[in-house]
Structure formats: structure tokens, C-alpha cells
What does this fold into?
Amino acid sequence: MRFTQPKLPYTPDALAPVISQETIDYHYGKHEAAYIAKLNELIEGTPYAEMPLEEIIRLSEGALFNNASQAWNHIFYFFQFSPAGRREPEGELRKKIDEVFGSFDELKGKVREAGASLFGSGWVWLSTDEEGKLFLTQGANADNPLRHGLKPILTVDVWEHAYYLDYQNRRPAYIDAVWDIMDWEIIESRYAE
Ligand code: MN
It folds into this structure.
């Protein structure tokens, strides 16, 4: 096994009620696990078997890209949450958010809008470039900003499997709720990297 699924840094019930244990059991336990298993299967015996995951995402197409990117996206998604982190950005990143979006509340509104208007499955991303500029983008299916020269720092999974057990068709309600589990110390350290 080339890539292994990292253990969550919290218990499966720790994000409830924003994300229930049942959703974690399926989303992390089944969906993420399946993307990583499929990725390992697809790279076996190919030149991709020696590459870092980011490199596979940049270079591959089709099923390999989909599974590599979904593996990365889900690990990135689950590791930005914590049951007791800081819920607001501070410092340099806060300054940038205020500059680009007007305020933290306006950023939340834009994330809701981007997620609600994304047709079908995909992701909403907050990313940065080499100069520290911020970009809010939508990505369909397995898309990842790494494909577009950006470095992601925050994401919201808006595939139905991410919210349907807890919110049914209310995607905007799920998007609004994730701010209650988002750990800004983690987002800021990604931004500063
Ligand atoms: Mn997902």
C-alpha cells in the first residue's frame, strides 16, 4: 500500500451536530477510504507509484486523477476541523480576508453562494498564490486548485455524501454550519506555509 488513510485527529462523534458520527462513518470511513484504495490500485506498477500525491494530481487524467485528487481533497477537508479550535481568522490572514472580501462575514456569504450555485458535485476552495493573494473558487467533481497553480488553504466538500444524512437537500445550511468546526489556527498555518 503506497498511500495510507491518515487517522482523524478527533473522535468520530467530535464534530456533531455539525457533522454527525454517521456522516463521518460513511464519508471518512467509506468514501475517503475507497478513493485511497482505488488510487493505490491504479498506480501499482506504473511510474505514478513513485510520485508524491500532489505530483500525481498535477499530471494524471481520468480515473487516476479523480481518485488521487479525491484522496487529497478529503484528507485536506477532514484535517481542517477540530471540536475546540479558534473559530475566527486572526493576524495577516484576517487582514487579507477583510481586504479581499470586505469582512469575515462576507467571506462566509461568498462561500455559501459559491457552494449553493455549484451544479452537481464539487468543492468550494479558498486558496492563495505565491504573493499571498486570496482566491475563492468552485471546482466540479474532483477538481483541485493545485491543477490551476494555486495553493488551497480551506475547502468545503459540497458533494451530497458530505451533508445528505444530516441536512438532506439543505446544502446552504450545511455550508453555514461548517464554520462552527473550522479551526483557523490550522487554516492560518496553511496560509503561512
Ligand atoms: Mn466527499
Summary: The radius of gyration is 16 Å. Residues 27, 31, 74, 157, 159, 161-162 surround manganese (II) ion (CB under 6 Å). The first helix runs from residue 21 to 43.
